[in-house]
Amino acid sequence: MTSSLNNVNRRRFLQISSGSVAAMFLPQIPVNAEESSKTQPNILWVSCEDISPDLGCYGDSYAVSPNIDKLASQGVRYDNVYSHSGVCAPTRSGIITGMYTTTIGTHHMRCEGVPPAYVKCFSEYLRAAGYYCTNNSKTDYQFNPPLSAWDQSSRKAHWRGRAEGQPFFAVFNFTTSHESQIRNRSKAMLKRLAALGPNEKHDPAKAVLPPYYPDTPIVRKDWAQYYDVITLMDKQVGDILKQLEDEGLADNTIVWFWGDHGRGLPRCKRWIYDSGLRIPLVIRVPKKLRNLVMPGNPEVLKPGSVNDELVAFIDFAPTMLSLTDIKIPQHIQGRAFLGSQKAGPREYIYAARDRMDEAYDLIRAVRDKRYKYIRNYMWHLTRGQDIDYMNQMPAMQEMRRLNAEGKLKGPQKQYFEETKPVEELYDTLSDPHEVNNLADNPKYKKVLGRMRKAHKKWVKETGDIGLIPEPEFDEMKRPGGKYQETSEPVFWSPKWQPGQDARRITIACPTAGASIVYRISGNGVGRTDWKLYKKSLWLTPGKTLHAKACRIGFKDSGEARFKFDDKVLVSQRPQTPTKDARHWRNKLNQTDLLESLSRIKELDGQGRKAIPKYLRALDDKYAPVRYWAVIGLHNNCKSSSDIKRAKTAFGKSLKDSAAIVRIAAAHAMCDWGQEKEALPVLAEALKDKTDKARLYAIIALNKIGEKARPVLPQIKIALKDSDNYVQRVARTTIEQMENK
């Protein structure tokens, strides 16, 4: 063996050269736990979907959740934990990156984000530190999970696949409590529910409904089945905890149980009221690990403890790094609430609601321990917009039926109000269901001012891009709709001569921010799982090094191969750049677009006084500003004279270079009786090359209702649109016309 290998542990070298699972040669990463001077605790995440803290351990006497309750008795129950979104995909995007979706561009439901080059899945940092990371099985990050994120991500992923002694981070996500299961009346589901014992089945008659629901048998049935599926999910939690115990791992494993956002029922899921944001979090820390988790104050982790500090979902990623003694990268916006890098307590949590499936909205929220502030940027829209998936819930159908019949009372009517207030303020202590808006109450003027200021500061500091209409943003993040592809990795080997029995190989990728994975084959060794590349590694005769590069939001590279005796084609050690000057975020930061958007939205709520400013903004250099100017005029011009001025101005807007401006102006003109000029603009927009521009157009046609009948043939063509959301709105629009 050459002198270049003198300092290499021979056992680890043999593992590498044989292509074993533990072959990621990173000098700072131990293959076996006993080789590490640092404690590396195992961490198990047990997550579930669509539940609020509706569990026995949170004081809910209607709930039946013995396994989660037992876990809480052994650990810490967190009472003030909130998502940054009321729906799964944006929620999970923030959890896996530790960043706000409104910063990295993953805020719209089911969008395909292109975050900045420095954004990584936090599990990649754990893999680099020697952890075996598995995900079973949901990802839903608003981008395809990169190969670098997980050792294994599938329905079979389990900590059992790790090397002997290797620490693990394992995620098990249970979908049993998902919204779709609350309305599931299939034979299979009824059989599962029938198997519940007499003390486990929930009696609809005993349900205590929130005041925003009508008290009917249909609503009570959905409410009871929601609790039933929680009980079914609780049994799954018990099973995975038993596996941990039976395998002798409980004393070395930190366990987290959490839900991904609020309950999957109307006015909960998708919304940023507490019913959509507040979630359960229980963390159990074995006694011998408590000083590691809370240095100097391990007693706060003793069994049965309760913690009321504000915790945000974007805090999960940095907390995981803190627990595993990995330095938290500066770009991460969350803050650790446990471990060696624990930050001070939060004053506020923040949340956002943007497009939910086929329905656009734009809402932001700020909450401290008592008050919730909500800013409705699309105040002109009702809360009760049609969302096909949500409308399948019997309780939602019941609410719509009763609303149409004029039978809803008090808070039950709030959801169907024609518009929303520009601002909402709630005292969650006295009004936990958030039905009594205090924004106009002079007694709360100071609170309103403080919360409004906190919101504006957050929007500015985080670079919230929500006010950029999605068709415009899609073109910014992915020009021409084309996916960028990560370049293939390149190889370099220093000071090697033929005849040597090993050579050190460095791998790099020309694409900024790319991560690299590799595997080694040869001499009878077959394909193995991709390992995360961090530092140069050794290759021996007869072996082939395989490498791929990936970056979030990009297509993965092709596979590059390097055989032991291949010549190196680059003369100097290559490096993967960390900055991407061409990225949309960098380009955006060089403009004043966000400031301009903020200024025009300051006009919300000013009514007729804002009209002159809106008219001037129709000539703004930025299409998004022109768009919001059209929206402002559409919803603030009430008198015939104001409408006449706006109509004249919109003659130019109907020919604007930006589809969103043309569509918004045409929508307004149709509402004002100018269908002859405006309908052709909307019909033409249904053929736009950008799918979200087509969505804007079909939504406008849906909202003008019967006036859209002359272009019904074009709407029917939209039933075959390549975008599923366009299809949904087209179908709803046709059904509404046919029912008239």
Give the strand order, joined by hyphens, for the main sheet: 5-4-6-1-7-8-2-9
Q: Could you name the CATH class of the largest domain?
A: Alpha Beta
CATH architecture assignment name of the largest domain: 3-Layer(aba) Sandwich
Helix residue percentage: 25-40%
Low-confidence stretches: 1-37
Q: How many DSSP H or I helices?
A: 24
Ends distance? 85 Å
Tell me the CATH topology of the largest domain: Alkaline Phosphatase, subunit A
Mean pLDDT: 93
The biggest beta sheet is recorded as:
8 strands, mixed
CA-atom Rg in angstroms: 28 Å
Counting helices, strands and paired strands, the structural category is: alpha/beta
Strand content: 5-15%
Oligomer: single chain
Question: What is the name of the CATH superfamily of the largest domain?
Answer: Alkaline Phosphatase, subunit A
The tally of beta strands, per DSSP, is 21
Number of domains: 4
Give the overall form: globular
Record the SSE blueprint.
Elements (H helix, E strand, L loop, with lengths): L9 H8 L24 E7 L17 H9 L1 E3 L2 E2 L5 H10 L3 H4 L17 H7 L3 E5 L15 E2 L14 E7 L4 H4 L4 H8 L22 H30 L6 E7 L14 H4 L3 E4 L5 H4 L11 E3 L3 E2 L3 H8 L25 E5 L9 E5 L3 E6 L17 H11 L18 E5 L17 H18 L7 H8 L12 E3 L10 E6 L6 E8 L8 E2 L4 E3 L3 E8 L9 E4 L20 H6 L3 H9 L9 H7 L5 H14 L3 H14 L5 H13 L3 H11 L5 H14 L7 H6 L6 H15 L2
Parallel strand pairs: 1-6, 1-7, 2-9, 3-10, 4-5, 4-6
Antiparallel strand pairs: 2-8, 7-8, 11-12, 12-13, 13-14, 15-16, 16-19, 17-18, 17-20, 20-21
Helix pairs in contact: 5-11, 8-12, 16-18, 17-18, 18-20, 20-21, 20-22, 21-22, 22-24
